[in-house]
Specification:
269 residues; alpha/beta; Rossmann fold
């Protein structure tokens, strides 16, 4: 099932890579059939506004994040930063504006179309210290103790084996290094229909796990000083939820204590 889920995500994000942020915002996957016949996942429901940040590049912003991890990442000039699930380069270019010419940013993604878009964006900008690498977050193609900082934006929820992902993050960070990731977690039990739907997995929702379990995985990976820097509820529109729940179940869901949250988490090695 892990391989199947990864292939679903790769396919979705290869398709999304070839669309603009405006297309993603106006309809499910820009009006293509990539979201299937029965589900309509708006990938911009979770996103935050980057446009006022140094290093922002509109061509790299596809509206796919769920936070601003660089805001709390404590990146310094000269750092080596890894951006996990770097997409078209949005967070990588923001990080690059902070590390400067002496630092380096490595973007990791397994979507070929996203990598092509990111590399083209970097070339247009003339950046020589931003590199985009193809690879799997569960088995990163990086040496031990490489990075000062890791950032990631609404990606780790898509990784089937989160234990492996955080273990790999610990491995590639230098001693004294840290990460800051924005991600989607849940509180309470999501309805089975949402959890089982592959399209909702690609849309970040059913791939999310309980907030407490998420933080425990980070702790078990060996990280210290774990802190939730930002926590906000994500409200899925009724027209999306109705595809899964029906009117009666939707009302029950809205009145329950179940919630979907975007969190930004910081931790140190």
């Amino acid at each position: 099932m892990s391989k199947e889920l990864k292939e679903i995500v790769r396919t979705k994000y290869n398709q999304i890579a070839n669309q603009s942020k405006q297309q993603n915002e106006t309809s499910c996957c820009g009006g293509t059939s990539c979201c299937g016949d029965s589900s309509e996942v708006d990938y911009t429901i979770f996103s935050d506004d980057y446009s006022n940040l140094d290093g922002y590049n509109a061509d790299a912003d596809l509206g796919l994040g769920c936070g601003l991890p660089t805001e709390f990442a404590q990146i310094s000039a000269g750092d080596i930063v890894i951006d996990l699930g770097s997409g078209a380069g949005n967070d990588a270019f923001v990080a690059r504006s902070i590390v400067g010419e002496e630092g380096k940013v490595l973007g990791l993604d397994f979507s070929g179309a996203m990598l092509t878009k990111a590399k083209n964006n970097a070339a247009k900008l003339g950046y020589t210290n931003v590199e985009f690498v193809k690879g799997d977050i569960e088995e990163m193609p990086f040496e031990n103790d490489l990075a000062n900082v890791i950032v990631s934006n609404c990606v780790l929820n898509l990784v089937p084996d989160k234990v492996k992902a955080f273990s790999e993050m610990f491995r590639v960070l230098k001693a004294g290094g840290h990460f800051c990731v924005s991600d989607v977690v849940i509180s309470g039990e999501l309805p089975d229909a949402l959890l089982k739907d592959a399209e909702m997995y690609a849309g970040c929702v059913s791939g999310a796990i309980q907030k407490e379990a998420y933080l425990e995985i980070i702790k078990q990976a060996g990280f210290n000083n774990i802190e939730v820097k930002k926590d906000k509820e994500v409200v899925l529109p009724d027209d999306i939820l109705l595809n899964y729940l029906g009117a009666e179940k939707l009302s029950e869901f809205r009145n329950s204590k179940v919630g979907i949250f975007s969190v930004t988490v910081f931790a140190e090695k």
